[in-house]
Amino acid sequence: QSALTQPASVSGSPGQSITISCTGTSSDVGSYNLVSWYQQHPGKAPKLMIYEVSKRPSGVSNRFSGSKSGNTASLTISGLQAEDEADYYCCSYAGSSTYVVFGGGTKLTVL
Amino acid sequence: QVQLVQSGAEVKKPGSSVKVSCKASGGTFSSYAISWVRQAPGQGLEWMGGIIPIFGTANYAQKFQGRVTITTDESTSTAYMELSSLRSEDTAVYYCAIWFGELLEYNWFDPWGQGTLVTVSS
């Protein structure tokens, strides 16, 4: 069982927006603005999409955005495209002994 | 832009050890923190541990304490992850990644190596 809880799957049609939630506790997500999100296509390595809750690395589309409220972080993808179909993982800092914890992953299907 | 290239796939017997390498290019290796993350078939990501230059020693997830050793060789810009007492449940793709954070709160990973499949089977 993963430390952070994500929905197993979400889906949306091209052009629509979807949001993936990531629920932790007051020991991780709730205590730090240090949530990151990764996109993983089948057979490929994960790719950083969002860090520190809402920052986008250079080269990542502005269709991807992140936010946090309390113990829950969210990744929103607007203007869905076929290439967005992938697995998405959240990750949170959890203190200097645990360091980081991951969510179980969410499979995004673009209908 | 730093790139990470990992060693090739391994097949190991239960009870043995495996050592996976991760060679960095295009950056100042000595300044980077490096983590290892694994992914069992069809499963999610699992942080194993990492090494932060300012500390000089590695930090490990409690689950892997005593079984994993993460080291670096600055002369070759290579990081290593050795996992011992292998069992079938250790069959997974193992990734290295550059580990970032501010004020020693290391928390995000970019970029990642291509992954190394380790299969544990008798």
From TrEMBL, chain A:
Top-level taxon of origin: Eukaryota
Cellular component GO terms held in the UniProt record: extracellular region; immunoglobulin complex; plasma membrane
Pfam families from the UniProt entry: V-set (PF07686)
Signal peptide span: none
UniProt KW keywords: Adaptive immunity, Cell membrane, Disulfide bond, Immunity, Immunoglobulin, Immunoglobulin domain, Membrane, Secreted
InterPro entries (UniProt xref): Ig-like_dom, Ig-like_dom_sf, Ig-like_fold, Ig_sub, Ig_V-set, IgV_Light_Chain
Subunit structure: Immunoglobulins are composed of two identical heavy chains and two identical light chains; disulfide-linked.
Main localization, broad class: membrane
Lineage: Eukaryota, Metazoa, Chordata, Craniata, Vertebrata
Any one of the GO BP annotations: adaptive immune response
Subcellular location(s) per record: Cell membrane; Secreted
Record protein name field: IGL c4022_light_IGLV2-23_IGLJ2
Domain Ig-like, residue spans: 1-90
Keyword Iron-sulfur annotated: no
